[in-house]
Write a structure and sequence with these properties.
Blueprint: H1 2-9, H2 23-28, E1 38-39, H3 51-57, E2 62-64, H4 87-99, E3 102-104, H5 110-119, E4 125-129, H6 143-151, E5 155-158, H7 172-186, E6 191-193, H8 203-211, H9 239-248, H10 253-271
Parallel strand pairs: 1-2, 2-3, 4-5, 5-6
Helix pairs in contact: 1-3, 5-6, 7-9
Length: 278
Amino acid sequence: TTRRCRKLRSHLGLLEPGAVKVARPVLRGDSAPRGQGPTRHTSPFGDDFRLVEVFRRLGVQVAQLTYNIQNLVGGACYDPHDSGLTRFGRHVVAEMNRVGMMVDLSHVGDRTCLDAIDASAVPVSITHSNPGWFFDNPRNKPAEVIRALADRGGVIGCCLYPNVIGGERTTRDQFCAMVARLVDEIGPEHVAVGSDCTQNWSEEFVAWLRNGRWQPPEANPVVPKWPEWPEWFSGPADFPVLAEGLFDAGLDEKAVRGVLGENWMRLFADVLVPESDR
């Protein structure tokens, strides 16, 4: 709970940092890094920006500002009106920069995205979205947001989730052509893959994911279900198939290596460190 987190904050000196420099051991070939990955929104921070440091010390390295619905930090991609980054949200972004927690804008509203990119002192990420010109979905991003992200050194992870690529009939060649066009538009160092792979997750989980606690289940007339995935990508084991498609789309080896991981590693090495260590 928020109350317990605040109590924990008063004892930060007793905590061992979770995984401050996750990218560097991987680049050296060391054993797998410790720590947790992302949190899908900033609501666990409550209304106290100081809790960002608590979660960072507990191992949270990436935080998506919002998840599909407005919160105290800003607007989300499915909101009819995007408030933009709030005053509180600006303090949260600044604190994330200070402690070395990466900003993720994947499910965030377009205006809030632009505000956060501008407010952040370090590059930010869109870990799993696509350009709106590829498929029209609120989860995908307009050119203005993607260009602003790249201009500030950020990375977008092109997403394989069926709902944001046009369904399971979208071909590997279509997806890889999209990646190649994006590389041409914003530069190979700013494009990656964020698969958003949800294979073998339960239907009960997706129902909870879609409804959360903000609406009763009966408010959603459609029972949430996981979509069918394209036959050419069923999980991480199919990354070699994706690599082949990227080569076929015209990317050279350096660009493919960047898209399939090295661009993320560079961004992690730059951002997932405290301000005092940069």
